[in-house]
Amino acid sequence: MAEPRRPDAGSPRAAPARRTGAARGPEQAARAALRSLEGLIDHPAEGVSAVRRSDDGWCVVVDVLEVPRIPDTTSLLASYEVQLDRAGELLEYRRVRRYRRGTADE
């Protein structure tokens, strides 16, 4: 899939330059949280289940596969709350929930 063409830099409609790594929106915050958490806990991320702006940056909930099992529905997953500053740098993280893949919230 081809990337959309960007207007010429001299054009008045040119997009503003963004700092690399800056979490300027929820998508960038989610990606930064995934990268940071996977690097620290050495478990693969399954996805992001929540993103919200906080007073000093972003709070992202990342779901992680902690214990893979067969069958897959018995694997243990965990939800981690990841706090990022406005630049997308990790401030802190903590595990807030651990659950089996096949279970639903009550």
From TrEMBL:
Region (Disordered): 1-29
Example of a GO biological process term: gas vesicle organization
Pfam family, one: GvpO
UniProt-listed InterPro entries: Gas-vesicle_GvpO
Superkingdom of the source species: Bacteria
Low complexity bias spans: 9-29
Protein name as it appears in the record: Gas vesicle synthesis protein GvpO
Organism of origin: Streptomyces prasinopilosus
Lineage: Bacteria, Bacillati, Actinomycetota, Actinomycetes, Kitasatosporales
